[in-house]
Amino acid sequence: MDNKITKKRLSDFLSYEWIKLIIVCVVAVLLWEMVYTVTAVKPTVGQKFKYYFDTSVYGNSTQLNALIEDEDALSYDVLMFNSEQLSTDFNALPTRLTVQEGDILITDCRANVSAEYEKGPFVRAKFVIDNYYAYCYEDLLKDAQNYLLVNFLKDGLTAENAFSAFNEDYLDIEKISKVFRERMAKDNRFRTESQKAEGVFLEKERVTRLYKEVIDFAKLLAFKETDPDLFLTYTKYDQSLIYPGDISLDYWKKEQQKEIDAGRVNATYALKVDALSKYQDENSKKVNPSKYFMYYGEYDAKDICITVFDFKAEQPHLQYETIPFINAIVRSCSTILD
User: Distance between CA 275 and CA 266 in Å, rounded?
Assistant: First the structure.
């Protein structure tokens, strides 16, 4: 048997080995990709925070993102933060919301009195409220208070005494730790005990910040009594009863009766950002809301308002990230929360 090494045999051998090496590398890459996919943190609905600029709004996402980041408004558990400018050519909002992709819509509350609306003014914000999971501010505040009371504050407290002023002694560390460990049980970021201990610390910071923000949000809502122009108040489905579209009037009547029965008559659904300019002074160094958004084709924030989407069933722990988002804008543009 001839075992002599020749140039041809050596060349054939090396070629064969290179093919095997390439196959091994490809398999290794695929295995690592599979491991990464399996172990990677997959953001939940709540861990993805998204806000939209409506078709009538020109938004400066660069400035607004910088504000939210500088204010450290969103908690450690928000893993993705982005925005989207909606287009008149194809408004993706209805599709996005079917999978709960969205937290805030910056829209307009301008009364459209064009000829096609002969029965009365048509307001885009009211259409949004009637059709797109709008969260009234009063319910948002109440639900956020209940969320904190049940999950993180000491037993025996009520909304009246817990939220009259911030009190760190009201925080229940055992509750915070218990809720954190339960809801993060499958989160790959917190596997070891040291990681879990760090997570509990971050969770305490999140809860503490939210506690303060909820108190400030109540302070903001209290301005409804003295300055109703600061908010868009509305009884849901009033506009749809005038412009029912393809849906029967009976349907809208039944839906509105549910709102009336729930006590949501003239409820607060949006903050009118232009009104924040009234709460400024020369020494406050507050900015004009038009720094963040302007009515499309104009140069100010007149008639622009901020609405919130209600997806608390899908994001029970992170629904209330919307509160510090709104508060950050209020602080930047007014002295209301100073």
Answer: 19
